[in-house]
Design goal:
Blueprint (H helix, E strand, L loop, with lengths): L19 H8 L7 H12 L3 E4 L6 H7 L5 E4 L3 H15 L3 E5 L3 H4 L2 H10 L3 E7 L19 H6 L4 E4 L6 H13 L6 E6 H5 L21 H12 L4 E5 L1 H5 L3 H11 L3 E3 L14 E3 L5 H9 L2 E5 L18 E6 L12 E4 L2 H11 L7 H18 L4 H13 L6 E3 L3 H9 L8 E3 L9 H11 L5 E6 H4 L5 H7 L4 E7 L4 H11 L12 H7 L4 E3 L5 H10 L4 E6 L11
Parallel strand pairs: 1-2, 1-3, 3-4, 4-6, 5-6, 7-8, 7-10, 8-9, 10-11, 11-12, 13-14, 13-15, 15-16, 16-18, 17-18
Helix pairs in contact: 2-3, 2-8, 4-6, 4-18, 10-14, 12-14, 16-17, 16-23
Length: 567
């Protein structure tokens, strides 16, 4: 399954006049249907094939309806992990990933995953139950799971909130949420449906025709004309490519523009894979390196596409561009949010398309030379830090992982390395939780990717601290026989926090952890597991990735972060 920005699950244009067959079906709907059936019928009508989630008391009407549908249900053990799995499914397929949740604690447990989906622009369609309508509207009625204002808990996290109070509202509310999730920038959305509405019998016709085509965010031509002129006449143009390029399936457009302009390209950590790693114009992803920061500051025209230039993308806000900045961004709130720019509100694909068509060829034989000089400086700096172990681990993982297999990285030291130093080989294959930065992303996200595309093995990388968030999902991996290899780097605690605290305070507090025997624990779930070493990692990882089904590889080792140079 490939990322297709246009073709998947955007609904179908409505036919205004029913056919005789449609009329007959509408007059004779099948008996025994409920509001829950309207939910699943709407999802199927929109093009959904798979849903994630966990059942709960108020949501049982939705889950019972799944039995009468063709939707594939993948149930995880913790709602937050179900959210991470849906997030990855959305990233891999470009489709909206339905996430079915219960009320109160069940819904709230998903919030950290939805924050990551929002930060990374992953299209997740969360559908939550609610207490019965009689208990809504203020006051405290003593219902199990009751919140005074459940919507308020989600409003600051998701892209849009949609409420239902009657069964006939369900198809339109779910379709509106679907459209919102897939309109650039993609993101998580939330639908709330009370228990009694989900359980109520309905005599409405089966949902078959819905239009939820995402809105296209086109650039204004006067802005792209100016941007094209600035880039065409620049002496030292450069490009920063963010996650928006990957989400918009715009990597081909980016390459065409860079080659036409002879403009070097650096990808942000969220934009890994947006530009070929070994291309002569590739600055790769060394954003936490002062040499790269200097290079970008020296550009007289700098195009930023699909990035808000946040903390990580700006080398911790030390980046101070001296040239003219052009920013193409689908999220209106990110335009000029960190730096003054010629702000172009547009989907990355549409914005890049306009520039490719309007810029002039800009010959520049010096650009690849300058790129090579920069990468040599970065390599020399890393060479001087005695980090042979860490660099070896990363190259070993890269060699063992098939070129088109996706990888999902938790917030762990090896992932921090990978942001800068890992070659993703192909677009949309390397993902991490660096958007919101929560622990526990890697393994459940990898499970969602394996559901999305079972044709290739998936790698998850966690530290032992982050792994403890996801252990329950070993049962999910086994239950659905998902082809995920989980590499757990066990250094006995929260390694990156240990480094941060030691550097800042001279000693670390609350970072050392008791942990289980991960190998024995995985085996108890029926998941094959092996304890490896830096010397045997390549062989063990390749074997695990080469065998179908879930597996765990435990690497007891302490790795260090490379010295970042912000100043």
């Amino acid at each position: 399954m490939t990322h297709d920005h246009h073709g998947h699950g955007h609904g179908h244009g409505p036919e205004l006049l029913p056919t005789p067959a449609q009329t007959a079906a509408a007059l004779n709907p099948p008996p025994g249907r409920t509001g829950g059936d309207l939910v699943v019928e709407t999802l199927q009508s929109l093009g959904a094939t798979t849903v994630f989630g966990l059942p709960g008391q108020h949501a049982l009407g939705m889950f019972d309806a799944l039995r009468r549908s063709d939707l594939r249900y993948v149930g995880l053990r913790v709602e937050n992990n179900a959210g991470f799995a849906a997030d990855a499914y959305g990233r891999i397929t470009g489709e909206a990933a339905p996430l079915l949740l219960s009320t109160g604690p069940g819904a709230l447990t998903s919030l950290a995953a939805l924050q990551e989906a929002a930060a990374a622009s992953a299209p997740v369609l969360a559908i939550s139950s609610q207490i019965p309508t009689a208990g809504l509207g203020g006051g405290r009625h003593g219902y199990l799971h009751e919140l005074r204002d459940q919507q308020a808990s989600f409003r600051d996290v998701v892209k849009s909130v949609h409420t239902v109070r009657a069964a006939s509202q369900i198809p339109s509310a779910v379709a509106a949420a679907w459209q919102s999730a897939l309109t650039a920038p993609h993101g998580p959305v939330w639908v709330e449906i009370p228990q009694d509405v989900l359980l109520a019998e309905v005599s409405l016709p089966v949902v078959t025709s819905l239009d939820a085509t995402p809105h296209e965010v086109y650039p204004r031509p006067e802005l792209t004309a100016l941007a094209a002129e600035l880039l065409s006449t620049a002496a030292r143009p450069a490009i920063i490519a963010g996650g928006g390029v990957v989400r918009a399936d715009a990597t081909g457009k980016l390459r065409a523009l860079a080659e036409k302009l002879n403009a070097p390209v650096v990808t942000t950590f969220g934009g890994k894979g947006a530009f070929p790693w070994t291309h002569p114009l590739s600055l790769q992803s060394w954003l936490e390196d002062r040499h790269t920061t200097d290079f970008l500051e020296d550009a007289d025209v700098l195009l930023v596409v699909g990035s808000g230039l946040g903390e990580l993308s700006s080398n911790y806000h030390t980046f101070a561009p001296r040239g003219r900045l052009i920013q193409i961004e689908a999220d209106l709130g990110k335009l000029e949010s960190n730096h003054p720019a010629l702000g172009i509100h547009a989907d990355a694909r549409l914005g890049l398309s306009a520039l490719v068509e309007t810029v002039r060829e800009r010959p520049d034989e010096s650009a690849p030379v300058r790129v090579g000089e920069l990468l040599a400086k970065v390599a020399a700096r890393i060479e001087s830090q005695d980090l042979t172990l860490e660099r070896g681990l990363l190259s070993t993982i890269r060699e063992a992982l098939p070129a088109r297999s996706p990888s999902f990285w938790d917030m762990t030291i090896l992932a921090y390395w990978a942001w800068s130093a890992f070659d993703p080989r192909h677009p949309n294959t390397m993902h991490s939780a660096q958007g919101a930065g929560g622990l526990g992303y890697g393994f459940p996200a990898a499970l969602g990717a394996a559901v999305a595309d079972p044709s290739r093995p998936v790698l998850a990388v966690s530290g032992d601290g982050g792994a403890m968030y996801s252990l329950a999902e070993l049962a999910t991996a086994r239950q659905y026989d998902l082809d995920v290899t989980w590499l757990i780097v066990d250094d006995g605690g929260y390694g990156i926090l240990r480094e941060y605290m030691t550097d800042a305070f001279g000693s670390a507090t609350a970072t050392e952890l008791a942990r289980p025997d991960f190998v024995a624990l995985a085996e108890s779930f029926g998941v094959p597991s092996v304890r490896t070493s830096p010397e045997t990692l390549g062989e063990d990882l390749a074997k695990a990735l080469g065998e179908r089904g879930p597996s765990v590889v435990v690497l007891p080792v302490t790795v260090r972060m490379f010295g970042a140079t912000h100043l």
